[in-house]
Amino acid sequence: MAPVPPPQLSARKSPRQARATATLEAIFEATIQVLLTDGPTRLTTTRVSARAGVSVGTMYQYYPHKQALLYAVTERYLNTVAETVERTCLQNHGAPLAQMSDTLVKAYWDAKTMQRNATRALYLVALEVNTSDLAEACMQRIEAATAAMFDSAPDAKFADLALVNLTFLTVLFGTVRSLFTRKMTEESERRVGDELSVMCLRYLEASKIA
After folding, report:
1. Which residues cross the membrane (predicted)?
2. Which top CATH class is 16-64?
């Protein structure tokens, strides 16, 4: 179940027509751009509306202030990441463990790196608004999806699946996050991604019941 935002962070309304949805897309993209160029402390709804090409009045129809906007952008981003992992896990139920591990690492990696600007920008949002409930909800969805997938592996059983799953995800999340808190070339990122796949699979293989 998606977390219910605090009243002060709730959107005033949801888009009901294609034009309104396109407007929100422009607002969300503009928010990412302003975060990256100006930082979270200098982000204002006025700057975002100007970058998005919409009026401040239109902005206020949806978000009363920047904290509500940042909360909404974070929610949308994390939902996309969780949906990507959930879909990948469902598609790999019953697959060999090696395929599960490699596909999962790649799916999470791609979900983060293909939204590179959003990933970098939203690590800054916590400076302005508490989004811990969104992060926790995303984590719980991913943990449930990956545990169910690993439990269906025909070639692997684990004495403590919950612990193995948690450790696997902690390594995956931590490694990917580190790439966005330091400057690395795309080639270095790619090589780290390849090593991460190897490391995660070796851990799973070592954790199997003999």
Report:
1. 161-180
2. mainly alpha
Cβ neighbour number for residue 128 with a 10 Å cutoff: 17
Scored b (16 or more CB within 10 A) or e, 19-47 reads: eeeebbebbbbbbbbbbeeeebeebebeb
End-to-end CA distance of the chain: 37
Identify the pLDDT of residue 7: 53
Question: Both tokens of residue 64?
Answer: 């009363």
Instruction: Report, as an integer, the average pLDDT of 126-138.
Output: 85
Q: How confident is the model at residue 50 (pLDDT cuts 50, 70, 90)?
A: very high
User: How many Å apart are CA 60 and CA 11, to the nearest integer?
Assistant: 9
Output the pTM of the full model: 0.85
Assign a CATH topology to domain 71-207: Tetracycline Repressor; domain 2 (1.10.357)
Give the DSSP H or E segment for 173. helix 161-179
Question: What are the two backbone dihedrals, phi and then psi, of residue 158, each rounded to the nearest 5 degrees?
Answer: -125, 140
Q: Structure tokens of 3?
A: 């977390």
The span from the CA of 148 to the CA of 205, in Å, is: 17
Q: How far is CA 176 from CA 64, 119, 144, 171, 195, in A?
A: 33, 10, 20, 9, 12
Give domain limits for the chain. Answer: 16-64, 71-207
97-123 pLDDT tens trace? 999 999 999 999 888 877 777 787 777
Please give the structure tokens belonging to residue 188: 């270095």
